Automatic annotation (TrEMBL), chains A, B:
Its cofactor is Co(2+); Zn(2+); NAD(+). The lineage of its organism: Bacteria, Pseudomonadati, Pseudomonadota, Betaproteobacteria, Burkholderiales. Belongs to the sugar phosphate cyclases superfamily. Dehydroquinate synthase family. It is found in: Cytoplasm. The gene is aroB. It comes from Caldimonas mangrovi. Residues 73-185 form the 3-dehydroquinate synthase N-terminal domain. This is 3-dehydroquinate synthase. Binds 1 divalent metal cation per subunit. Can use either Co(2+) or Zn(2+). Its main location: cytoplasm. Residues 187-331 form the 3-dehydroquinate synthase C-terminal domain. The keyword Iron-sulfur does not apply.
Length: 367, 367
């Protein structure tokens, strides 16, 4: 029971929508991990075809005492399925099983499962409770925390969604043991992100511990997840609906979203696109005179060491990026605003000319 | 300018989501009616093919000074189109026109347009502002107020939606002049509803003024809309998300929804189904010993005088009603709870046996 004692909790402070993030080994299969969840009603474990055989039974068993019945819904795996059609399979299952307003949805999977299950919970009968049980590093450190839920539209990523907070996040570090290497790296992209935007010391810690993280050292992962969640919870607690500060969490994402949309969702993992996007956003920060060139090198190095792409795809032109960025949610009145680093651990928002953005993309693309 | 002086305002008090309902003649085409709406951004007037030729240009003109551009989206007319496919035409229009987070949606139409536009506003980029400009009596007294938005699912009405408040409701009484007679009656069903559930004196007023209302007397309509909105605003202000009190607004709706779903959406108007449903719910209140038989007669009479159906359709059996009621949102753990009248002007929730419910339906159905 050594793992149990190592469990820690981070709170997302949002008044009447306050909730805990629990982080530790072996949490997923322990009934007491879910004691913050409303009792009664039907439980629906929503997962995907890759995660289901690994963990669905454990979660179903752990929550069964709290609920009158436990159902399962399996979604196809991958960002390309994060659309209305897949979302509707959740609604179909809920309605054909007569699920009422006391139903609790458990999102067991990565960011795609979490985003879709959260959005389904936000909309079903105008809102039922849900729980995040993230099974990827990326979901544990980013997407499962903060209540952003959405599906994609053919014309843009995450365009249809809701701000809707879970009752609880259960981040079980043991699930990271089975994570494919590519997904571990994708998650590290979001971990790395928190350094330059909010905590210079954390960036240095990541650089010192990157080999341990890649080797899945449990203590290193525990610290990375905890510190990431603390920073995200702090930001979300101040700006739940992204009217200002929260936008800094999108460092590298404006470039990254353009890569994802331009290649077709699913070609690159979200974290891979963000990794490359952070190199470009760091370059932009340097070109705007905010940061020295050495900062770009430093970001390039840590992202590359994390086994993430540091060059944009050869097939995407600068013009195509700009076109895609203009339909991104972050654009306002057609003006694209970028998250830039103003000093190490401090981010801000800046516009940039099309010429400069194209030059930055060119400098960091495979040609 | 006599109409302008007759304008009145009811406030929906919801803290930071507080908003006014403006009621009066000629409001729709006056720019000052919209002064509570955020400036800038693109305006999108969402309407349907029946309403567009009557009022879309007036609204577009009235709001044009507040916005950089005014777009229009026309939806097909009718409850049978209140689904994902139609909703998606709004998203398509918003995205192909590069609409950002400052976009304001104007819902110009009846309950279907309001419900779908409100839900589109709730979901687009996780939430953009919207305004209700209801063009039916039913929408003015009920659906445009209180922030319930939704679309239908083949397995149930309003199953997918959100609680999402508008910035403002503009109820122009002049639009009621062009309303088809059947729709006027449908609206009166919801007006009548407010009497037995919340205000005995208002029920007596409706009985005294029903001929004037049917003749579209402007002063009578103004009072009916104002008092209805006051009662609805009071209820919603206390229980926005329907955890208790708000359910009383569904008097007659559990029976009514079953009629609508059983016949296929669009066969009967919502207000028609609610009219008949209130006769049944009044009978149930009497059968449960809460109200005298004379109350059922009284409700039967006023509903019939309003030119609403007082008998359920011949083709729907009691068993079919019960089956449909069990998938309705109001059911919990498979138990159906009915809004009943406990004393005139006071409603409550009660379960009832299947046998009793079937008997009530039988007594008020065409066979």
């Amino acid at each position: 029971m050594e793992e149990a004692s190592a469990t820690c909790e981070v709170r997302v402070q949002l008044g009447d929508r306050d909730y805990p993030i629990r982080i530790g080994s072996g949490l997923l299969s322990r009934p007491e991990s879910y004691d913050a969840v409303p009792r009664g009603g039907v439980a629906v474990v929503v997962t995907n075809t890759s995660v289901a055989p690994l963990y669905a039974s454990s979660v179903a068993r752990a929550v069964s005492a709290r609920h009158v019945r436990v159902l399962r819904v399996e979604l196809p795996d991958g960002e390309e399925h994060k659309n209305w059609l897949t979302l509707n399979t959740i609604f179909d299952a809920l309605l054909t099983n007569g699920c009422d307003r006391k139903t609790v949805l458990y999102a067991l999977g990565g960011g795609v499962v979490g985003d879709m299950t959260g959005f389904a919970a936000a909309c079903y009968m105008r809102g039922v409770p849900f729980v995040q049980v993230p099974t990827t590093l990326l979901a544990q450190v980013d997407s499962s925390v903060g209540g952003k839920t959405a599906i994609n539209h053919p014309l843009g990523k995450n365009m249809i969604g809701a701000f809707y907070q879970p009752q609880l996040v259960v981040a079980d570090l043991d699930v990271l043991d089975t994570l494919p290497e590519r997904e571990l790296s994708a998650g590290l992209a979001e971990v790395i992100k928190y350094g330059p935007i909010a905590d210079a010391a954390f960036l240095a810690w990541i650089e010192d511990n990157l080999d341990a993280l890649l080797a899945r050292d449990k203590a290193a992962l525990a610290h990375a997840v905890k510190r990431s969640c603390e920073i995200k919870a702090w930001v979300v607690g101040q700006d739940e609906r992204e009217s200002g500060l929260r936008a800094i969490l999108n460092f590298g994402h404006t470039f990254g979203h353009a890569i994802e949309a331009g290649l077709g969702y699913g070609a690159w993992l979200h974290g891979e696109a963000v990794g490359c996007g952070m190199v470009m956003a760091s370059e932009l920060s340097a070109q705007l005179g905010l940061m020295p060139a050495s900062f770009v090198d430093r970001m390039h190095r840590v992202i590359e060491r994390a086994k993430l792409p540091v060059q944009g795809p050869a097939t995407l032109s600068g013009d195509r990026y700009l076109e895609l960025m203009r339909v991104d949610k972050k654009a306002e009145d057609g003006e694209i605003r970028f998250v830039v680093i103003e000093s190490l651990g401090q981010a801000g928002m800046r516009p940039a000319s099309d010429e400069l953005v194209a030059r930055v993309i060119e400098a960091h693309s495979a040609r």
